[in-house]
Design a protein that fits this description.
Elements lengths: L11 H14 L2 H4 L3 H9 L5 E2 H4 L3 H4 L5 H8 L5 E3 L5 E4 L13 E5 L7 H8 L5 E8 L9 H4 E9 L2 H9 L3 E2 L2 E2 L1 E4 H18 L5 H4 L11 E5 L7 H5 L10 E8 L2 E6 L2 H14 L9 E4 L2 H23 L13 E2 L5 E2 L6
Antiparallel strand pairs: 1-3, 2-3, 4-6, 4-9, 5-6, 7-8, 10-12, 10-13, 11-12, 14-15
Length: 347
């Protein structure tokens, strides 16, 4: 990520890029997934978020750390509005009750893992309006040295309308000299679900005593990622983001890297309350306000598989008289009830 010299004023190109980035943060397609920002919007009756909060986001701070420069960049936006003091920003239109973009989204591969997000948006933008390009990451590879080691050679592209998505799927282009494979997201998701069901069906049976679980099944719809807090020394520091009386709502802590923690709450209802609590109190870890993002779809399935395997591995070790703690790809931790265990940086 290129950081500009703060002593130099923003160029017109940088100002336009900064405005576009902030408009994206508040767009339907992003805010529907961004638990942290949605929580900040909910803190104000009119949905205003302080500019100082936005200045902590990497893709804003790479342009400026000055609220005045940020104000100048977004003051003429048609989709954003500023408060009377020019210290906070909000959407011009109210938040939608729900956002459904699957019909406008396509799965696409192979794309260069080293390509920047800006390069990907520019490429796909040649074939229709693009609302977002979502990268896909290898589990537990956030700390890998190179971009190629961290990111999968595939992306989800959210087009601005169904027609553009259908046309792109019907006539997939080449990325450089490589022909792209493209599927509607709905088709991709159905195929993945069928693949996982087939694997489960063909899984070799195990002895009854080995199949018997010592802890309840991990809940779905309750998985979140904590990032943007720097080095996580121990999993108890993550639990410490909540008061002691609330920590029992955490079922499992899994740390795939030293700067990322995945949480599984007791259930979806508990998760919603604890995320709201975190957003309302705005606690810090290592002096930084954490970014909490809900894990859905493939990301959640991957986490649950990792956790279930970790539990099974530890159980096997204990049966063999080899105790121990720890997590695959990270450090183990205790949840509030049941389960022992074991970062996407805010962009």
């Amino acid at each position: 990520m290129c950081i500009r010299d703060s002593a130099m004023p923003l160029t017109s190109e940088q100002t336009a890029a900064l405005k576009k980035q902030v408009e994206f943060y508040f767009s339907d397609v992003n805010i529907s997934k961004d638990v942290f920002l949605k929580g900040k919007v909910a803190e104000d009756p009119k949905g205003f978020v302080p500019l100082s909060v936005l200045l902590t986001f990497n893709r804003v701070s790479k342009f400026t750390k000055d609220a005045k420069e940020l104000f100048d960049a977004i003051k003429d936006s048609e989709t954003l509005m500023l408060d009377e003091a020019n210290l906070s920003v909000a959407r011009s239109e109210p938040l939608p009750e729900s956002v459904q973009k699957d019909d406008q989204t396509v799965y696409c591969k192979p794309v260069p893992s080293a390509a920047t997000l800006e390069e990907l948006v520019e490429f796909f933008g040649k074939f229709g309006p693009v609302e977002a390009v979502w990268r896909r990451y290898f589990p537990g590879a956030k700390d890998a040295a190179s971009m190629e080691s961290r990111t999968k050679p595939s992306v989800f592209v959210v087009f601005g309308n169904v027609e553009s998505a259908k046309k792109f799927t019907a006539e997939p282009p080449k990325f450089g000299d490589v022909q792209l494979f493209v599927q509607p997201k709905t088709v991709y998701s159905e195929a993945k679900a069928a693949e996982m069901a087939l694997k489960a069906k063909n899984k070799k049976p195990v002895k009854e005593q080995e199949a018997k679980r010592t802890t309840p099944e991990m809940p779905k719809g309750s998985s979140f990622s904590i990032t943007n807090v720097g080095e996580i020394e121990k999993f108890s520091a993550v639990k410490g983001l909540w008061p002691a009386e609330e920590q029992k709502g955490i079922r499992y802590v899994f740390t795939p890297s030293s700067e990322e923690a995945h949480l599984i709450f007791q259930d979806a209802e508990t998760a919603a309350k604890m995320v709201e609590s975190l957003s309302t109190r705005a606690p810090t870890l290592n002096g930084k306000i954490p970014t909490i993002t809900k894990l859905e779809g493939e990301a959640e399935e991957t986490l649950l598989a990792e956790v279930n395997k970790e539990i099974a591995d530890r159980s096997e070790m204990n049966r063999g008289g080899r105790g121990g703690r720890g997590g695959r790809g990270g450090r183990g931790g205790r949840g509030g009830r049941g389960g022992r265990g074991g970062k996407r940086e805010r962009e």
